[in-house]
Amino acid sequence: MMKKLFFLGIVILSVFSSFAGQRKKNAGNSPLLHTKWILEEIYETLIEQGKDTTYVTFSDNYKISGNSGCNLFFGNFSYGKKRIKIDFLGSTKRLCANMSLEERFSKALRDGITYYHIEKNKLFLRNKNKVVLKFESN
Hints:
Layout: H1 2-26, E1 37-42, E2 45-46, E3 55-58, E4 63-67, E5 72-79, E6 84-91, H2 100-109, E7 115-119, E8 122-126, E9 131-137
Antiparallel strand pairs: 1-2, 1-3, 1-9, 3-4, 4-5, 5-6, 7-8, 8-9
């Protein structure tokens, strides 16, 4: 009986330790998946958000979606430790008064993004040479 209680105590302690370690590991960093990433910069140029907030989300079934400033967009992505590939982007076809942010954002998403990294609550999408898009988690 004593051995069973001791073993049960070890199991419970191990479970709680692993959960505590996971929380500490992710503390201060937003995860790539299931986070609403609000656009801050395109090619290091600050973006003023208008009526429709430009954002992106990544889901665990390798789907990307969001708002490009006027229209909703969607597609697929794949990623690894530091690498990311975004492809097959489609969007709704609403016409808005000012389409310039949408055009710049859509072009940037298609501009050979190959790397990503997250620092605290910031997501950086890069091609080989520079940061293409910078987001902040919401």
